[in-house]
Known about the structure:
By secondary structure, the protein is of the alpha/beta class. It has one domain (13-281): NAD(P)-binding Rossmann-like Domain (Rossmann fold, 3-Layer(aba) Sandwich). Helix content is 47%, strand content 14%.
Amino acid sequence: MTLFKNQLTIRNMVTNLLEGKKGIIFGALNDKSIAWHVAEKAHAQGARLVLTNAPVAVRMGTIGELADKTGSIVITADATSMKDLEELFAKSLEHFQGKIDFVLHSIGMSPNVRKGIPYAETNYENMLKTLDISALSFHRILQTAYKLDAITEWGSVVALTYVAAQRTLAGYNDMGDAKALLESIARSFGYIYGKEKHVRVNTVSQSPTATTAGSGIAGFDSLVDFSDRMSPLGNADAADCADVCITLFSDLTKKITMQNIFNDGGFSSMGMSQRAIEQYRKSFEECPDK
């Protein structure tokens, strides 16, 4: 209880980290979305925002509520369309009457996962869509901003990722490939953007989080439980992830770029925790070799 109170006190003490800054948030669907939490905290820290998602996601979700809550505007854009992205950045620059300070990429979808197609039997057209939506969209966003010189010097671009980029997790399917590509793009474009424009590009590797997209993965509840038992600090939730993103958007992290920040309670450095061992001992029934 004391630790929780201390965390709240620290969060309440840190204010106006993004005062005067302007940003674009990709991927807020509803209040379960990490992007939603990031937008709320960015607004609370003084930022002005443009919220964006694909037209179908805007119709299905509740992004309008978030816009009202944060005093933001919504500009629909398909992140796999260069035309849409160019229009989005042009309208945002006009709206803000100047350059943008930060961008969040929180986009991911796999048709193979949605249709329950096993990785060994992958549909390659679906896989190409997975890579285009979940990873190449990040390159498209960076390229568009770069060509338009849309981001201020010492600006920040952050994309959300997952440890499946480095480790095999059953059921995560081709999203693991997409996250690996996403992190590679952050390093490759981060070098160019940093050298030429002093713009930072990083990824945040988040604990499994019960978003609308994440909950569609087979065995997701078990994955969340396993991750929590393995992590010395427990799973990081959406609010924790938002805190990391706000820090990366701020001037406190001006020399951090091309990095993958693990916000996972220590999971990524663990082999086997005592909590996991104790849970494993409770059930020794034969497990199918899958």
